[in-house]
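Sequence decides. Our protein:
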Amino acid sequence: MALRLVTDFDLGKDVLPRLRAQRAEAAGRGGADILEDYNSLRLLNVERNGNIIYTYKDYKGNVIFGLYDCQTRENEHLYTFEKDLQVVSCSVNRERTLLAASFVQSTKEGRRNELQPGSKCLTLLIEIHPVNNVKVLKAIDSYVWVQFLYPHTERHPLPANRLLLVSEERYIEQFHIQVTHEDENRVVVKNSGHLPKDRIAEDFTWAQWDMSEQRLYYIELKKCKSILKCIQFYADENFSLMFEAPLDIPLNDSGFKLANFGYDYCQDQEKLSKHPTLCVFTSHTGSLCVCYCPKFDSLEQITYSVFYFHKGYSKTFTAALGRTGSPMTTGITFLNLDYYVAVYLPGHFFHLLDIQHPDLACHSLFQTGNSEMVDLLPHRPLQSLPGCLVLDWCSGKLYRAHLNQSYLLQFLWNTCQDCEKMAALHCVLSCGQNPRLLEDKIIQWISEPVPACHSFDLIQEFIIASAYWSVYPEATHLDRLLPYSSVHTWNEEIPGVTLVTEEIALPVMRVHSFKGYWEKLNSNLEYVKYAKPHLRYHNSVVKREWQDLNSEEKTGKRRSMAFVRNILDNAAKVISNLEARTLEPRLAPLLQEEDSPQRLLMGLMVSELRDHLLRHLQGMEKKKIEHMALGYVSKLLDLMCCILETSWKKHDLRSRILCFNRPASVAESSIFHIMTRILEAANSLFLPLPPGFHTLHTLLGVHCLPLHNLLHYIDNRVLLLTETAVTRLMKDLDNTEKNEKLKFSIVVRLPPCIGQKICRLWDHPMSSNIISRSHVTRLLKNYKKQPWNSTIDKSSFRIEFLPLNYFIEILTDLESSNQALYVCEGHDHVDAEFVEEAALKHTTMLLGL
C-alpha cells in the first residue's frame, strides 16, 4: 500500500512482557499479582520528547502509572494511586519529578469519589521524585485534561514548570509551578498553597495541541462564525496569540471536542462517524492546512474540505464510496505526511493530497473502491501527531508513517490513468530517500515501451520534477520560482472524485516579529495577499539570447568578449559537474565534442536562472544561489544522460554501435527512439542537451532510417546536421550508388560555411561540382558585363567546348584581376581550372560516358 506504518511503540511488545515477568516473579515469592486484568493496560499520552505514559490496575484496583523511555527502550514506574478510579488524562514533566493526572469516579463498583465528595472529576499534581505531596488542582463536575509544556532550553533543571489545564467548561489555564531541590534528589513544589495561573482561552468549542512545536489551536464562535486561533508557547514562560483565521464551517452544534490531548476514553468510538472531524496541519515549509469533514449525510459519497491558508484557497472534495454495503464504524482519518496529507475512510477510499503544490488535482493521488491501498489500512480510528507519527489508541501502538516508495513505483509502473501516473511520479520523487536509486528505477521504467501518456510528456515531467526536487531543500519558496511540473493546466476528470476550489480569507497575523515557521508562513501569506506576478522561471529570455548569439557567430560578429567568456565558463562548470556525477566512464558517447551551440545554451540558462533567483531570494548568499543554479542545470542534463545510459546498458551496445557496413540492429533503433523522445521533451521546454547529443542522434538516424524518412527528419529539424556527424559520414561511407545519394542529399542541406569544409573530404565528382558551384557563385556575385577583350592564350585549353571555354576565360580573368574575390579559406586549389575539370566530370557522369 502507498502508506507504510512502521511501529515505533507497541504496548503488547514493549510493556506487557515486562509486566508479565514481574507477575511471575511476584508469584514465585508468594506475592500478589501486580496486574489484575491485561485489558486495563492502555496508553495515556505521548510527550514531546517521545516518552509514552501508560496505565494499568493491580489486583486491588489501584491505578499504576508507567513511562516508556523512547531513547533507552526501558520502562519506569512513575506512581501508584491507591484508589480504584478511572484516569481521564495524564502528563509528566520533562525531569519526571511531577505528575499531573485527572480522574473520574470508577463506574465499575458505582462508588462515589472518596477523596473529594460531590465532584465528578478530580485533578491532582503529584510530587513523584521522590513520592511526596499531592495537591488538588481542580475538583469539579466536568472533565479536565492536563498537559505539561516542554520548552526547548539548555537549562536543566528548569526553575519552573508550566501545566496546561483544559476544562470541559470551555476554558484553558496555564499553571506556573515553581520547584525547589532539597538534598539534591528531593523535588518539592514551592508555595503549593497558591500556584499562579493564566487564562489562555475561553468560550471555545474545539482545541488541538501540537506537542512538537508547543502550539495550541482552538476555535471560538463569534456571531455564528468559526474563528481559528493559535497560541505559541515559548521557553521564557511567555506565550503569544499568533493569528486569527475565519473558517467557513458550521460548528454551532458540534459540541466540545479536543485533539491530541491524550486518550479520550469518554468519547464513544462507535459514533465517530456521526461527528465532524477537524484538524490543523503545518510543515517546515510554512504551510498551514485545516482539514474538515462534516457529519456523514450519505452512504454513497463523502465530502471533506481542506483549507490551504498558505495558498489562499480551499478545495472541497466529494468522493464516491467504493463499497456502499460496507459499514462505517469509524470516521474519516487525516494524517500529516509533511509534503502530503493522507485522507482515508477504511474500506472505501484513500487520497494523498499534495499540500505544497495543490493547484492541479493531478498532483494528488486518489484511490477509491476495491483496491489494495484501501484494504490494508487499519480499520480503526487513528490520530495524527507531529513528525509523521500516528497513534492507534485502541491497540496501544505508535506508528511512524512513510510513503511506501516500492508500492508507489509498482503502482506507477502498472497504472493506466494519466492522472495517477502524474501523482505517483511526484509522490515518489518527493520522498527524498535515496533519490538516485529512485531516479534509476523510474528511468528503467521510462526506457521500457510503456503506454503513451496523452495528457503530458513522461520524460519531460520526470526531468522537470526531479530537477526541482533536487534543489528544493536548499531554499524556501522555490515552488514559486522554479517549475515543478511541465503541466500548467489540467481539465480532465478524476474518476470517483469531484472538487470545488474557492478563495478564502487569509489569517490575520497578530505579532510583528517572526522566526522559523512563522516567518515562512507570513511570507507565504504576503505573497498571496499582494498577488505578485508570476515568478516561475522559464526559458523564453534564454531562447532569444541563444538565437542572437548563434546568429552573431555565423556572421562573425560577437558582443562583449567578457559576456561570452562568462557564458562559456558557466558551461564548463556544468560539464565538470556532469563528469563528476559518475565514477565509471559513460558508455554513451556524449560530452566528447565541443558542440558550441549547446554550450552557449547551457551557459545562458545558468546565467539567467542565477539572475532570476538573485532577484527573488535576496536573503540568501550569492555563492549559494550560484551553486543552486549550476546544480539545477547540471541535474537537467545529467538526467538526460542517465536515460540514454540506461538504454545503452540495457541493450549492451558498447563498441558495436554505428558500424555502417551492416544493417542497423534492434538495439540501435531502440536507442534512436529514446533519443528522439528526449529531444522532443527538451525542445518543447527549450532545454539544453548534452554536447554530442545531436551528433549521436544524427548518426543513429542515418543508420536506422530509410533515406526518405531521414531527409524528412532533417528538413523538420528533428535531426541536426553537425559538422562532426557529417565528417564521420564522409569518411566512413564508401561511394556506392546508395551512399552517394545519401551523401549528396546531406551535403546540399548543409549551411555553406560547413558545406565547403565537408565537400573537401568527399573525393567525388558530385563534391567537386558543389565546390565549383560555390566558387562560381562567389566570383559572379558582383560581376558586371564589360566589353570583352580576351588576352587569354586559347592554346592552353585542351578541349574544344566553346561555351565552357568562354565561361572559363571569364572566370580566369576575374581571378587574375582580383585575388580577394575567390580566395576561400581552406580551399586553396579551387580556381577556374578546378571548375572546368569538375564541369567535365559531372557532364560525363550525367551522360553515362
DSSP finds 21 helices and 32 strands in the chain. Residues 622-651 form the longest helix (30 residues).
